[in-house]
Every structure is written in structure tokens, then in C-alpha cells.
Design a protein that fits this description.
The protein is mainly α. It has one domain (2-66). The chain is built from 3 helices and no strands. Helix 1 packs antiparallel against helix 2 and helix 2 (17-36) runs antiparallel to helix 3 (43-66). 7% of the residues are buried.
């Protein structure tokens, strides 16, 4: 878990700032999902897990479009 958070806070070296920012956002969303679990324990966490999963898919698609 700490490695994921460190990956988010460490600046990724890439000439395109958008690419680096997407990597940071993906790492953050993955870390949040690990923290609350894929499904969560309560309605709030379940809702957040769904939102994070959707955002994660979107960010991965955006990253693929850059590559």
C-alpha cells in the first residue's frame, strides 16, 4: 500500500505533463480502492468504490489514447 502512495506522490518523469498527471491519478485511485476494498463495507464505501472504479477506467482509457 505504501508503495502505491509513494508512486502517487513521486513525480513521474515524462515530457508530457498530462501523461504524468494521469499516472498519478491512476495510482491514487488504485490506492483508494485498496484502502476501502473493491466493494466497501457500507453504502458510502460501496458508492465511493464504484466512483473510483469508473474514474480509474476513464483515466486508463485517456492514458491509452496518449500512448
Amino acid at each position: 500500500m505504501n508503495r502505491v502512495i509513494e508512486g502517487y506522490t513521486t513525480t513521474a518523469a515524462h515530457r508530457d505533463h498530462n501523461y504524468s498527471r494521469l499516472l498519478e491519478e491512476i495510482a491514487y485511485l488504485e490506492a483508494r480502492l485498496i484502502t476501502i476494498g473493491q466493494t466497501g463495507d457500507c453504502a458510502y464505501e460501496k458508492s465511493m468504490a464504484r466512483s473510483y472504479s469508473q474514474l480509474l477506467q476513464l483515466r486508463r482509457r485517456e492514458l491509452g489514447a496518449i500512448n
